[in-house]
# Entry
Amino acid sequence: MSDSNLGEIDFHYHDFHKVLIHLSGNTSYSIEGQNFDLQVNDIVFVNAGEVHRPIFHDNSTYERIIIYISKEFLDEYSKEENDLSYCFRNAMENNSHVLRLRSFKNSPVASAVNALINNLGKDAYANEFFMQVLFLEFMVQLNRAAISDEVEYISTSYSGTKINSIIQYINENLTGDLSVETIATQFYLSRYYLMHTFKDETGYTIGNYITMKRLSAAQALIDAGTSIVDASEQAGFGTYSTFLRAYKKTYGTSPRKKAESQASLSF
# Structure
C-alpha cells in the first residue's frame, strides 16, 4: 500500500493480529501508548485489541505491506512444536512491537513476502491453496528470524509520563475498580491531569479505552466458547445491560446476532 498526505490517522484497533512491514515514509507507530520510530523494512507487530495508529512527521509517501492474521489461525498453529505466535509474544517480552532485521533484503523473510506478493490474485491452478502454503512459509521464516541473533527489538521513543504504566495497569486489572479516581490515586496524579494526558497520548478518553479493552476481552471469551453473560462478567462489566449497550454501540449489533452471523459463515 502506498499513500501520501494522509493527515492524522485516528487511533483504532482490530479483532485480528497485524504484521506491518514499513517500506518508506518519515513515520512513527504508536501502539498502546508506546511510540516507535520506524526505519525501512522494520517489521511491526500489533496484537488483536491493541490501540494503534501511524504518526506522519511530514508529507513523504507512506508505503507499507500489511498482513492480517486471524486469532483462530494463530491459535491453530500455536502448538509447542510449531508455535507461530512466538514472534508476537517475544516482541512483547522484549517490551517492543518492532523487529529490525540486520539484512532484510537478503533474508528468507523478504523472499517469503515477495512470493506472497507475486502470487496474489493470480489465476493459476490451486492458487488459493498455494497462497496458504506461502503464508505458512512467511510465518515460519518470520519466527525463525525472531529466534535468531540477526534481529533486534526496537525500544520505544516514548517517555515523559506515566501513561504507559497506566495502560499496563488497566490491562492487568480489567475486572477491578478502574474509576478515574481509583487510577489517579494509584499513580499519585490529579484527576484532571490523568484524563487530559491520557487523551493526548492515546487518542481515547480513559473511560472509552477501558470499555474498548473490556469489550475486546469479552469478545475473546465469547469466541472461545464462554457464554455471553459469563464473558461480560469476566471482562469486568458491572452489569450485563452495561455490556450490551457498549457492545451494540461498538459493533452495531448484539453479541448473540454477531455469534449467529459468524456461525452461518462457517458452513
User: Anything to note?
Assistant: Residues 163-260 form a domain with the Arc Repressor Mutant, subunit A fold (CATH 1.10.10.60). The two ends are 32 Å apart (CA to CA). Confidence is low (pLDDT under 50) at residues 263-267. The chain has eleven helices and eleven strands.
